[in-house]
Amino acid sequence: MANAPASYKLRLRHQLNWIATQHHYQVPPLGDWIGWIIQAGRGSGKTRTGAEDAANFSVENHNIRYAVVAPTGGDVRDICFEGESGILFVLKSMGLEEGTDFTWNRSLNQIKILSTDSQIKGYTAKEPNRLRGPQHHRAWLEEMAAWDDAHKGDDLNTTYNNLMLGLRLGADPRYVVTTTPKPVKLIRELVARSDVVVTRGSSYDNLANLAPKYREIIEKYQGTRIGRQEVFGELLEDIEGALWVQAMIDDFRWQEEWGPPRLSKVYVGVDPSGGSSESAGETGIVSAGRVRGKCPCGSTVGPPAHYVVVADCSLRGTPMRRARAIVNCFDVTEADKVVGERNYGGDMVEALVEQASESDDRVPYENVNATRGKAIRAEPISTAYEQGRVHHLREFVQLEEQQTTWEPDAGWSPDRLDALVWAITKLQGRRGRKVKTGSTDSRLPETIG
């Protein structure tokens, strides 16, 4: 050791330091596994684990082809390679110098280890066909639950499927998944396999390496399903008695390849909070539209009508702030009408919406009476979801949490869910319009889920 090269000493020091500071869920499992899923919360050190695996495996073995796959090309470059805990950071911590010991091609998302002739190549889950040809010894799959096609599971020509069919080099090909879990089909399938090992950790485990105020941030989510998933890394199970399960939403979410949805009518559903003060409960404000003609999803189950949930603008605030949010949602989603429940302050909301309108055109507002219970009103909408006829334009975290946790005999009122039910219940056919996909309009409130 005393006469060992300086580069060797730096590498050894780095490895010993990494071993000494690893959390239990960052330690590679023993046994004959193909996949290792690190299922942990935000800021728990998942990315560092994937970067360590990619760097160490490529430096210690010759002629390795290592794949790194992330949700987007930007994620591959900015997080997996160049991030604070990325592969470049790990290589430099080992004492390797760019240009002398390795090369980094930013435009190709590719690192070459010169001493071992190994290559680490980045891919985006947005282009699954790019993984049809390349072969690999090992792979790091970052935030798999957020991949565009994760809802399809291990299906033909998906990102995961194409990668697995190319993971065929060497005597022991394996892959490492670092993800905050979501109950999408692919995650559900993998954690059930006997050749996949799962280790779990939480954001709290890694607080010593995070900003001091981060504890205050995550403590706000204590006791919520969002906290269980995003902080504690828990793969949430369906709640018995709930009218929705997450798969009903995830498996039929609107896909980018379908193009902008053409909607024949758009309604903004409103569930008033019933209070006149800023401390009153949340007002549900959800915009949804009916797909014009045949839905590009291709489903033929049930009636032909399909629907798209366009925006969730629900919020708390003063009565006038809530009214402005309704008008804003109406304008931005180019809606035809606002539908609000009369039973709990609907008349007051209608009057305030008229005041909040900035143009001379009065926002069409229809008060509806809840003559039936919430469960009876919601069941036909739940059935449409089950048939794959309702598509969320993007992820609406808080709305979807209400959908998957509310039970008919629950002691609380699901404001966002009620607004959704009012909107879809009232939808009728009309001329088409296009709605942009993949972006959140800056004019919508920050509270959009």
Could you give a quick summary of the protein structure above?
The protein is α/β, with parallel strands linked by helices. It has helices at 6-21, 46-60, 73-81, 87-93, 159-166, 185-191, 214-219, 225-230, 246-250, 319-332, 346-356, 374-386, 397-405, 415-425, and strands at 35-40, 65-70, 102-105, 110-113, 118-124, 138-142, 174-179, 196-201, 263-271, 284-291, 307-312, 337-341, 365-368, 390-392.
Structure characterization notes:
There is one protein chain. By secondary structure, this protein is α/β, with parallel strands linked by helices. The chain folds into 2 domains: 6-230, Rossmann fold (3-Layer(aba) Sandwich), CATH 3.40.50.300; 246-425, 2-Layer Sandwich (Nucleotidyltransferase, domain 5), CATH 3.30.420. Helices cover 31% and strands 18% of the residues. It is built from 14 helices and 14 strands. The strands form 2 sheets. It has an 8-stranded mixed beta sheet. A 6-stranded mixed beta sheet has the order 13-12-9-10-11-14. A hairpin with a 4-residue loop joins strand 4 and strand 5 (118-124). The relative contact order is 0.12.
